[in-house]
């Protein structure tokens, strides 16, 4: 199990800042917040209704309520990994790859 941890305020900021094309639904490039139009079709970018801040906070609270017990249940296992999600996507991907390799090694060791 991989538990990717990002501070709530960072998640709220990320989701609330997300824009999608109102015409074709393509996600806007988050590194170009000022463009305002879709890179695929030129349609206007909009905030998804489910990315409204209060909706985001409610979703995160539901996730927290349902996931915290699972984390408590699994965290002492050798195949449980906590990963810092508040870093670059490449760094997160690298940490996930390392965690997967470690989990596979544990699983292989267990079958001998
Ligand atoms: Zn579009």
| Rg over CA atoms | 18 Å
Residues in β-strands, percent: 5-15%
By CATH, the topology is Rossmann fold
Q: How can the largest sheet be summarized? A: 2 strands, parallel
Q: So how many helices?
A: 3
SSE succession: EHEEHEH
Tell me which ligands are bound. Answer: zinc ion
Residue windows where pLDDT falls under 50 for at least 5 positions: none
Residue-averaged pLDDT: 89
Strand order in the largest sheet = 1-4
Integer count of domains:
1
**Name of the CATH homologous superfamily:** P-loop containing nucleotide triphosphate hydrolases
Span of the ends, CA to CA: 22 Å
* Shape summary: elongated
Query: How many E-type strands?
Result: 4
CATH class group:
Alpha Beta
In helices, the fraction of residues equals 40-55%
What does it look like?
Helices cover 49% and strands 11% of the residues. The protein is elongated, with a radius of gyration of 18 Å. The chain has one domain (2-111): P-loop containing nucleotide triphosphate hydrolases (Rossmann fold). The protein is built from three helices and four strands; from the N terminus they run βαββαβα. The chain has helices spanning 8-17, 53-74, 89-111, and strands at residues 2-5, 20-21, 45-46, 81-84. It has 112 residues and is mostly helical. The strands form two sheets. A two-stranded parallel sheet has the order 1-4. α1 crosses α2 (53-74). Zinc ion (ZN) binds at residues 21, 23-24, 26, 38, 40-41, 43.
């Amino acid at each position: 199990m991989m538990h990717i941890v990002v501070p709530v305020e960072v998640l709220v900021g990320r989701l609330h800042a997300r824009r999608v094309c109102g015409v074709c639904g393509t996600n806007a490039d988050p590194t170009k917040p000022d463009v305002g139009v879709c890179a695929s079709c030129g349609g206007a970018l909009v905030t998804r209704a489910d990315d409204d801040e209060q909706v985001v906070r409610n979703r995160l609270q539901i996730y927290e309520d349902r996931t915290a017990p699972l984390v408590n249940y699994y965290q002492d296992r050798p195949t449980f990994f906590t990963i810092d999600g508040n870093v670059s996507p490449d760094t997160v991907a690298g940490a996930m790859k390392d965690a997967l390799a470690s989990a596979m090694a544990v699983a292989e060791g267990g079958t001998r």
